[in-house]
């Protein structure tokens, strides 16, 4: 089927099988491999992207459902080589080990801040719980997010 | 995943006609259960009719109730000002379910129709599942049953209904509005689900092709206090071992109105009229709350793996009621 995806400000006409998820369309058809495939069943958050500004798991979203919607991926965060404040804070606080979950963590954190849910350690803990980190970098992930939240 | 045809519905009538005419066609809303189970090979529709672009989203208030459009997402409903002000236990239940990423996709209609989280149901490599393959048996009854039901079970199925928000919704006597080929009808949520009995593959009273269009939720009376408490193996992003949603009106130390439902224990969102009867016109004391919890769990049928749930569910309900009474004081 014909599907046009609006990703990071550009329209991409694609020819896809109906089964293709947003995650597979991004990775396999558009070469945007920032969003990661972890569990592929909505449990780990590694594929987190923004759909019309709201964070979603791209693995449980059909590409066909995203027509006429705006998809934002980690590739669009930095501006002209300058890391987004959340990206810079993750680097500063060493908020990762293997890095596989990091793009999903960062996209989720960007949305969390926009939602106004980074007011306390407890709030960050609760509203970041959809992003798993097998390396257990959670303390530094929270520090990075708090840092950005406090900078305002 | 079996190949399927994707159709974006243009209006509700077309969607209902398409799905009603073909047993192999299903609705697609948020997709968080539907696509997951299709990837696992548990659901194998030949065609999906996407209803997320239909004008079925949003919350309207009628003064005594709210009408929640079926495709309103969990996050949208949790952020609704009337829900925050008048139905706080619905907001609590919503935000304790899933993750923000899933709540931004999952719809209220889909939440009510979510399928069992039973590991045996979700794994087609397991042969015995009466819900997936009627007559094949139940692997859960002799398997790991920690996450299974103790109320409303049968010898054929012990799968839990895992929705959080359905707990306060059933306590409030919400009404599910549906549209079918024969027109619309309203179904009380207390009569919407079917206990497994000897037909666990039939989970509710919907006819194939009937589309949930809205859920009507009566507001709590003035002066009511409510709370939803969820107990689980990890503190966030996990299904309930036990949960309770309750609303009380307490006047001069006496309970004048009580609504109680339990999660994590029933094959359906478990309204406890037994607990409500004990609470009504009784003093708002710990003794009353304990008696209500005993009444709520009286019919529990446990297995070795679920025996712990009886006491846990009672303590969950007592804590919920104490929290409400304490907030009142």
Structural notes for this entry:
The complex is a heterodimer of chains A (152) and B (329). In chain A, 34% of the residues lie in helices and 15% in strands. Chain A has 152 residues and is α+β, with helices and mostly antiparallel strands. Chain A has two domains: 2-76, Beta-grasp domain (Ubiquitin-like (UB roll), Roll); 85-151, DNA polymerase, domain 1. Chain A has a five-stranded mixed sheet with strand order 2-1-5-3-4, covered by helices on one side. In chain A, α2 (85-92) crosses α5 (138-151). With 329 residues, chain B is of the alpha+beta class. Among the domains of chain B are: 5-50, 2-Layer Sandwich (Uridine Diphospho-n-acetylenolpyruvylglucosamine Reductase, domain 2); 225-328, Enolase-like, domain 1, CATH 3.30.390.50. Helices cover 27% and strands 21% of the residues of chain B. In chain B, strands 4-5-8-6-7 form a five-stranded antiparallel sheet. The radius of gyration of chain B is 19 Å and the shape is globular. The interface between A and B is medium-sized, with 31 and 26 residues.
Question: What does this entry show, briefly?
Answer:
The complex is a heterodimer of chains A (152) and B (329). By secondary structure, chain A is of the alpha+beta class.
What attributes does this structure have?
heterodimer, A: alpha+beta, Ubiquitin-like (UB roll), DNA polymerase, domain 1, 2 domains, 5-stranded mixed β-sheet, B: 329 residues, alpha+beta, Uridine Diphospho-n-acetylenolpyruvylglucosamine Reductase, domain 2, Enolase-like, domain 1, 5-stranded antiparallel β-sheet, 4-stranded antiparallel β-sheet, 11 helices, Aldehyde_Oxdr_Iron-Sulfur (chain A), oxidoreductase activity, acting on the aldehyde or oxo group of donors (chain A), oxidoreductase (chain A), 2 iron, 2 sulfur cluster binding (chain A)
């Amino acid at each position: 089927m014909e599907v046009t995806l609006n990703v990071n400000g550009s329209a991409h006409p694609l020819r896809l099988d109906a089964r293709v998820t947003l995650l597979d369309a991004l990775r396999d058809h558009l070469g945007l491999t920032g969003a990661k495939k972890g569990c592929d069943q909505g449990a780990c958050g590694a594929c987190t992207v923004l759909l019309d500004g709201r964070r979603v798991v791209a693995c449980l979203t059909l590409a066909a459902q995203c027509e006429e919607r705006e998809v934002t991926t980690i590739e669009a965060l930095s501006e002209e080589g300058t890391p987004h404040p959340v990206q810079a804070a993750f680097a500063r606080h060493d908020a990762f080990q293997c890095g596989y979950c990091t793009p999903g963590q960062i996209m989720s954190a960007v949305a969390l801040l926009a939602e106004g849910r980074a007011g306390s350690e407890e709030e960050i803990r609760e509203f970041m719980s959809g992003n798993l980190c097998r390396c257990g970098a959670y303390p530094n992930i929270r520090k990075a997010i708090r840092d950005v939240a406090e900078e305002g | 995943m079996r190949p399927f045809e994707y159709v974006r519905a243009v209006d509700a009538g077309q969607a209902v006609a398409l799905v009603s005419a073909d047993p192999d066609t299903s609705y697609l809303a948020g997709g968080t259960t539907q696509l997951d189970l299709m990837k696992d090979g548990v659901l194998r529709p030949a065609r999906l009719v996407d209803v997320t672009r239909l004008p079925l989203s949003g919350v309207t208030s009628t003064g005594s109730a709210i009408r929640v459009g079926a495709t309103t997402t969990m996050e949208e409903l949790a952020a609704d000002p009337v829900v925050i002000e008048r139905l706080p236990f619905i907001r609590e239940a919503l935000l304790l379910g899933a993750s923000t990423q899933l709540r931004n996709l999952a719809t209220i209609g889909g939440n009510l129709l979510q399928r069992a989280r039973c590991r045996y149901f979700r794994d087609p490599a397991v042969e015995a599942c009466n819900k997936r393959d009627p007559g094949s048996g139940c692997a859960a009854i002799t398997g790991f049953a920690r996450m299974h039901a103790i109320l409303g079970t049968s010898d054929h199925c012990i799968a839990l209904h895992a929705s959080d928000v359905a707990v306060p919704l059933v306590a409030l006597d919400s009404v599910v509005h549906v549209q079918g080929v024969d027109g619309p009808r309203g179904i009380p949520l207390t009569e919407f689900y079917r206990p497994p009995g000897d037909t666990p593959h039939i989970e509710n009273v919907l006819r194939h092709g009937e589309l949930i269009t809205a859920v009507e939720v009566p507001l709590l009376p003035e002066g009511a206090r409510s709370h939803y408490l969820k107990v689980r193996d990890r503190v966030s992003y996990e299904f309930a071992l036990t949960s309770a949603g309750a609303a009380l009106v307490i006047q001069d130390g006496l309970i004048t109105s009580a609504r109680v439902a339990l999660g994590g224990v029933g094959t359906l969102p478990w309204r406890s009229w037994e607990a409500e009867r004990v609470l009504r016109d009784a003093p708002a004391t710990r003794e009353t709350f304990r008696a209500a919890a005993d009444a709520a769990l009286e019919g529990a049928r446990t297995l070795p793996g679920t025996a712990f749930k009886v006491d846990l569910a009672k303590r969950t309900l007592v804590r919920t009621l104490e929290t409400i009474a304490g907030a009142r004081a």
